[in-house]
Amino acid sequence: MPEGRYLSEKASLYVPFFVAVLLVSLVILVLPYDTVYVRDRAYLRAFLATIVLCVAVFLLGTLYNILFWMRGKGLVTSPEKRLLGLVWRAARLVLSRVFAKALAVFLRDALYLSKLKGRSLTRWFMHLMILGGFLLMFALDLLVTLSMDILGYSPMIDEGGWAKLWFRDFGFELAGAMMLVGLSVASIRRFVLKPKMVRTELPDAASILFLLAVVLGGFILEAMGIAGGIPGHTQDTEYSFLGHAISLALPSSSGDWYDAAWLVHGVMSALLIAYIPFSKLFHMVATPIAIELEGLMSEEARP
Q1: Radius of gyration for the chain, computed over Cα atoms and rounded to the nearest angstrom
Q2: Which of 82, 112, 136, 243 is 20 to 30 A from 295, alpha carbon to alpha carbon?
Q3: Contacts of 3 (CB under 8 A, 6+ apart)
């Protein structure tokens, strides 16, 4: 391959990618964040710096994994060219008449994990709870950030607002509970039952324990806010059903540590984002998606 063409392919991929990374970082930094729970702005600034770095690592790690999958024996084109071609074919598929059908297949096999359900009901339920809870939490996070920090939507901001109660309180609690159930099943299988077909290595244990720490930390943080009467945690606390239950065992003085606990939980969540591309968590999500995309791209390429 001529050197000029190879460099052009790399520039066509990496320049837009790094521009996207910079834009995401700028959006994170310039949002007003006037409605966050934390009271100490120094803690907020520390969290924002951490999340920017971790999101950049996540995006770079994701790109690295995709380019690695684009390599193969006997292939004459570069991974960058193959990825750019895949993006182009995916765009054509989205604009085609078969997109609705392809999307239904994608949702069924890649997100609902229907093929895994036929092989093992326990594994399917475990993965569905973890993946479903994670995706629900991600969607809620985008919705809440848009509503509060960009649109200033009062029902999402006010203590007794319907959107605040159902999305910020109950919605996040439900997503966390789903992940907690799935992670509990995973922990029991790997650390208690230990079936012969399941090999628990250090990366497996680290992924499960890291996720558990983040999820449980979120419930404990919610409980500290309720027990300490922190703004945003003082009305209709039953919507945060697990946090409310834990708060009954905490003293009101636990609210004194709320800001520090918020920062610890936020940093752990950010580190989890950075860790995902280098863990089996990424493959749990990406492998079924890659399989479906490969099939969809092959079908779209047929005459």
Answers
A1: 22
A2: 136
A3: none
Q: Which helix (H) or strand (E) holds 87?
A: helix 79-94
Q: Which amino acid is at 177?
A: A
> What Cα–Cα distance (Å) separates residue 301 from each residue in 66, 98, 260, 296?
20, 12, 54, 9
Show me where the domains of the chain are located: 3-301
CA distance 257 to 23: 34
Neighbouring CB atoms inside 10 A of 22's CB total 11
Contacts 24+ apart (CB under 8 A), 76-85: 76/1, 77/1, 78/1, 78/6, 78/9, 78/10, 80/9, 80/10, 80/12, 80/13, 80/14, 81/9, 83/13, 84/9, 84/12, 84/13
User: Which tokens sit at 1?
Assistant: 């391959």
